[in-house]
Amino acid sequence: MVTKVKYLILGAGPSGLAFATRLKQLGETSFLLLEKESEAGGLCRSKEVDGAPLDIGGGHFLDVRKTKVVDFLFDFLPKEEWNQFDRISKIRTDRFEIDYPYEANIWQLSTDDQIRHLVSIMNSGSSRDTEMPQKFKDWIIWKLGDVIAQDYMLPYNEKIFSGIDINDLGTYWLYKLPDVSFEAILRSCLTKEPYGNIPAHACFYYPKEHGYGEVFLRVANTIKENLRLDTPVKTIDIETLTVNDEFQGEKVITTIPWHEIVSNQSIPNRIKDNIEKLKYTSVDIAYQSKNEATSAHWTYFPSKQLPYHRALYRHNFIKGAQGYWQEINAARTTDDLTIINHNKYAYPLNTIDKPQAIEEVIDWAKSKSIIGLGRWGEWVHMNSDVAVEKGMLLAESFVRS
Known about the structure:
Elements: E1 3-10, H1 14-25, E2 31-34, E3 46-49, E4 52-55, E5 62-63, H2 67-74, E6 82-86, E7 89-92, E8 97-99, H3 111-122, H4 136-144, H5 146-160, H6 182-191, E9 203-207, H7 213-221, E10 227-228, E11 236-237, E12 242-243, E13 247-254, H8 269-277, E14 280-288, E15 298-300, E16 310-312, E17 324-329, E18 339-348, H9 354-367, E19 370-372, H10 374-377, H11 384-399
Helix pairs in contact: 1-11, 3-6, 4-5, 8-9
């Protein structure tokens, strides 16, 4: 017997959970949420390691700025169960350690290094208003100067995107990088204080007694009668919107990677080809039991000598915890690391041909009443607060239309 609902949701990560829960809050109960794992949360899941929580999908924190999202999540994990932190993050190169963001804290370096950076920024293509390059490597140097590019941005991106040539990445998404002003950095070096603001998570919440995944477990618990765990998507009948010959929706909301449904034979070849153009990286999470002598919540590591690109010091934001976890592009994992979890789908990549490919996939899917949502449905590297917001807004647009 086929279970029929108005909304069939694929994937119980932040966006899928937010969409489903917001539907229920607005009085819509005809929905079903399918999740292949044994618990909800997606990349935001946590588990206990050495007697304390560890986030097995990498580092995730709740930014304080999206008040609608914060208030929504506080309904499930109340504010008094969170700690609030002012972000401390650092960048450790082969030669020095500097506070994040790099360009705002060049004043922390030696006089010789400050001069080296200032000359580089003054001579950068963007400072001299030269034509903007189209290749990723050239664009980074043009934007930031050759010193920041070579010391940090290029090696760091080559590490996190190991397995592809970074010149296969587009430049259309790099608007997120801050402007690097020679005058502002010179003033910062003279006054010995940072300039500008931290782009994201300048101030963040993290649960007092749990990992970050706890909030999504609580969200899931409120819709448990509409949630099917341990239910991977095996088949989708595109014409009838039937999944696994068991569940049918009037609309399908997919938050899972498009690659997970590409084997369906009723998908046109041109759409399959576009899905194959959507690239991603896999990330392993390793655990180190010792504490590091640092005040940082996390540190970025551009050094090619180290396999990992980020370390998150849980002893600085989780009560009673020890040690830290590392994020490693799976292509760089070494045998001496204690791997806690492998995340096949970690980062969607902003390759040159991604915008056209994902637009065609989403447009085709929408014509079949299949809606892409969240990091994987929209193929955008979004933080969890953005994913939650996307889910909430989509639910509201459907119910209130």
